[in-house]
């Protein structure tokens, strides 16, 4: 039996095993794994899914049912699964258009297909050096470090120790490819309001995000940085919102909105 990986980042490639923010040594990845939270696909899945989300906390089903109504309102179906299927297809199409032969696998933390299923399938197909893209852009335990733990757990549970390595893509909240589509949507909406004759002073842009427990937000990000109230999670969201508002004023037709 293979001994547990004791490197700072278990089961990472040698180039990424130290946990440095950026990998500067080229790595020849042979597959991409899209990792996400997962969600129920129907009413019968809701409580089992919530049990997975809260595993180890001893929360009774009666309490879970109080949360379940958020999913039951939409037929017990979470939109995240279909969104991830579309994202996977888009990644595959983009890679193909660039002539890059890199298969894409999908796996979730809390619902099928699970992350260990994705790693097992990749290994079965002969892929050993995996790049993992988690669909969470911002700092917090559940959106970053827990995915690293998920990767290590999934590789162990799948019995793939010593057979595969897996490197997680860095947080991408500030990457132009992530921010630009939001910017384009806001710019278009504001321009449309102005064209309708709505005064710039009457236009307000509301930024909303996924909520996490306050204590988790406060603990997010490196401890040696003073992030202010809300930790890195809030600071990063504010930084993106402020950037978008500044960019909103770049065009003449939109400049008055930011005055």
For this entry, give a set of tags.
259 residues, alpha/beta, Rossmann fold, 4-stranded parallel β-sheet, 8% strand
Describe the structure.
The protein is an alpha/beta fold. The chain contains eight helices and four strands. It has a four-stranded parallel sheet with strand order 2-1-3-4, sandwiched between helices. Helix 5 (141-157) links the parallel strand 3 (129-134) and strand 4 (165-168).
- CATH 2nd-level architecture of the largest domain: 3-Layer(aba) Sandwich
Class based on secondary structure composition and strand pairing: alpha/beta
Q: Which oligomeric form is depicted?
A: single chain
Instruction: List the helices and strands in order.
Output: EHHHEHEHEHHH
How do the strands of the widest beta sheet line up side by side? 2-1-3-4
Q: Termini, distance in Å?
A: 65 Å
Q: What is the count of helical runs?
A: 8
CATH topology of the largest domain: Rossmann fold
Tell me what portion of residues adopts beta-strand conformation: 5-15%
Tally of separate domains: 2
Helical residue percent?
Answer: 40-55%
Strands, count: 4
**Rg, alpha carbons:** 21 Å
The average pLDDT score comes to: 92
